[in-house]
Amino acid sequence: MLGFTKGLKYTLKQLTKEKVTYNYPDEPLPLPDRFRGIQKFYPEKCIVCNQCMNICPTECINLTGKKHPDPTKKGKIIDTYDINFEICILCDLCTEVCPTEAIVMTNNFELASYSRDMLFKNLEWLDENDENVRQVNKP
Amino acid sequence: MIRTEEMLLNVGPQHPSTHGVFRLVVKIDGEIITEATPVIGYLHRGTEKLAENLQYTQIIPYTDRMDYLSAMTNNYVICHAVETMMGIQVPERADFLRVMAMELGRIASHLVAWGTYILDLGATSPFIYAFRDREMIINMLNELSGARLTFNYMRVGGVKWDAPEGWVDGVREFVPYLREQLKGYHNLVSGNEIFLDRVKGVGVYSKEDAINYSLSGPNLRSTGVKWDLRKDEPYSIYDRFDFNVVTRDEGDCLARYHVRLEEIEESLKILEQACEQFPAEGEIMAKVPKIIKAPKGEAFVRIESPRGEIGCYISSDGKKEPYRLKFRRPSFYNLQILPKLLVGENIANLIAILGAVDIVLGEVDG
């Protein structure tokens, strides 16, 4: 019986301790700056180098570029940019290789939706996802 | 005389005590198990085959998903294998960060093993205490790497991020806290008579059996074999730390339980020393080419994960993707002894024995 009472004593002691749970849906979760959530995309920064598309381990990024509308300027600008969040694993490799920080992580992680199609995010959606953007993106 | 008929009982694949999607077909005669056949593969994702079409850096996030309770050790084994092939010297500071991250992962993994094992045996509250303390580790690793479980933290040649400000102090403060909590764990469970009745002398195997079935980790050390790769084949900077290899001689479920809890204490010792020796400054990445190409040839490395020896074999033909990649996944090997242990046991002991082996199905199925 001794072992049993010892355990009970420990349990009773815990009653006076502070709560450790989060009141999550009502209050936002405290997350560190480095947290890898849904990406934010800056179309004006993108130089269409395709590096994010090539490094993606799950091949969830698709992008196309077009010629710069201003004929005096060289290079391409972004036309479409899609991330398929059905298969994106938020591994952070796309932001790691981006030379202009056109794609960065945010602290947003709520992706649940009623339809699979909703998980297919396009350029406009990723551009508007501009809350809690990660401050430091490169080590 | 009453004649009994043998019955086939299907446990899992969806069953809370199988710790994942693991199916076990048991033949029972009354309450006694006469045959047990594990059925695995429900979580098979073909990591090894996928890796053949991926660059080395791209494989790292896939390894997170094998043993998802201690993803840091999996990150390390693939990086270590490629570094061995390319002859890269990892900077000291990166090595320290790696070791600290791995040891924190080991503690977190053993806490889950401890909590869920007691939960399997019917006690709910220890599980909550284990997860309360594990949450602190998860938060620390989240601050370090940006994810709670799938860290993707290590890179070939170093680590992705340096430690954030005050992180090492956080780890330093955590060590005495968990030591205090461990005493509480022992008070709560280790002496409990019901618990002891359930695990003492249950699921016993001998030293010879353990070696013949190539068990490793706490499953091997619980039979008295003093084998820990951190001591016997030191990798990274483990030779700089003073810690013991925990063993028990009984080889039963209780021995495995004690080995895991004591290993937490040893990991805390390593963490304490690592915090003290942590270099004030330094590089976190070695000089590596932008596109990593392992030279032609093959390499096999092995390290000690919380569940046993995890190995990584790479065969390369000089391209940026491996020609063949193979992981020696300890959970898969540890599981092989299960049918032998279960025969002749009472059906109620099934969960007690399975829980003590401590498998992670992501790793079993690869």
Distance between the termini of chain A: 56 Å
Percent of residues in beta strands of chain B: 5-15%
CATH class membership of chain A = Alpha Beta
* Mean model confidence by pLDDT of chain A: 89
Indicate the CATH class of chain B. Answer: Mainly Alpha
* CATH topology label of chain B: Cytochrome-c3 Hydrogenase, chain B
Number of domains of chain A: 1
Tally of strands of chain B:
10
Rg value of chain B: 21 Å
* Quantity of strands of chain A, as a count: 5
Low-confidence stretches of chain A: none
Principal-axes geometry of chain A comes out as elongated
According to CATH, the homologous superfamily of chain B is Cytochrome-c3 Hydrogenase, chain B
Would you give an account of this structure?
- The complex is a heterodimer of chains A (139) and B (366).
- Chain A has 139 residues and is α+β, with helices and mostly antiparallel strands.
- Chain A has helices spanning 2-14, 51-55, 93-97, 123-128, and strands at 39-41, 61-67, 76-84, 103-105, 120-121.
- Chain A has a three-stranded antiparallel sheet with strand order 2-3-5.
- The model of chain A has no long low-confidence stretch (mean pLDDT 89).
- Helices cover 48% and strands 14% of the residues of chain B.
- In chain B, strand 2 and strand 3 form a beta hairpin.
- In chain B, helix 4 runs antiparallel to helix 14 (349-357), helix 5 (125-145) runs antiparallel to helix 6 and helix 6 packs antiparallel against helix 11.
- At the A-B interface, helix 1 of A face helix 2, helix 5, helix 6 and helix 7 of B.
